[in-house]
Amino acid sequence: MAAPILVTGAAGFIGMHTAERLLDRGETVIGVDNFNDYYDPALKDARAARLEAREGFTMVRADIADHERMLALVRDHGVERIVHLAAQAGVRYSIENPFAYERSNLAGHLSMLEAARHNGVKHLVYASSSSVYGDRPLEGSGFREDDPTTDPVSLYAATKRSCELLSQSYAKLYGFPQSGLRFFTVYGPWGRPDMAYFSFTRKIARGEAIEVYGEGEMARDFTYIDDIVDGIVGVLDHPPAQGGHEIYNIGDSSPVGLMEMITTLEDALGAEADKVMRPMQPGDVTATYADVSKLNALTGYKPKVTLAEGLPRFVKWWRGYENG
Ligand code: NAD
């Protein structure tokens, strides 16, 4: 039987879906999560319960920054591949809570690098973020992996770029194959309540006002969760050669304005939003737009689900979840 795959952040949004996909294809998966209370712990418990009901899945409640524990976990289970998704996410939260990012994103990433290095791991795939590209206007073409990443506008972005640099140095020093994935605004069923599409859904359905930042001028490359998982699993199956470290965008490659996203949500909910316009918040960027040609060349990746298809799927899930 193939060695188990370690998925960190398995009680998180992307982690749960990734673990499910791996289980679907017959892999054995060990999940790690510290179930922190950054958002609704009941949602993390519900995701974990879904996974724990599956054969071949084990959840370990641990902090990834505990490097001795991570080292032992990878060693004792003979883990050969790691999908490292655990992190403190959120741009705005990082301004108020910098040390949460130091622990989960910096110490946590280093801990996974050490665990991989000392145990002969064959491929470490880890989450980065579109935020590393900084604040750029929307232009005719998407952000490419070799574009400059020297001007992070949030602490979150700075920690994500730091993870890429740590990985680059480990690839040079110790040679185990690594792939970093820059995700672009991921949405879908079992998503994150701190993200705009989720909190807007709740508020519009309850008749509460929504705060629209950037006066509605922002645009995001909203990417449906199944497309993100296609990208993750595709990359996992295509490790770079020994000593290699590659970075890939995973996005929808078709940015949508915030106002259009809200209209799509209103249609899906059958209700009109009471919008309060607000200026851009510190740490926010104007637009994101993924060029996915590098990933396409590796795996044939093509995003399949448009925002107009994906948001109604989210709303349908949310209604079921809200009603227990
Ligand atoms: P999430 O918050 O739902 O999942 C992250 C999980 O990691 C959570 O369950 C959390 O409890 C866990 N975690 C955090 N710190 C930990 C620690 N120190 N030890 C153990 N577990 C810990 O977020 P997500 O949206 O699923 O994001 C997954 C990854 O993708 C993150 O690295 C995030 O930065 C990155 N990312 C997400 C998006 C997006 O739009 N969702 C975009 C870009 C990048």
TrEMBL record:
Q: Name one Pfam family in it.
A: Epimerase
The entry's protein name is UDP-N-acetylglucosamine 4-epimerase
The answer to keyword Cytoplasm applying to this record is: no
Domain of life, source organism? Bacteria
Q: Which UniProt keywords apply?
A: NAD
User: Native species of this protein?
Assistant: Brevundimonas mediterranea
Where's the NAD-dependent epimerase/dehydratase domain?
5-251
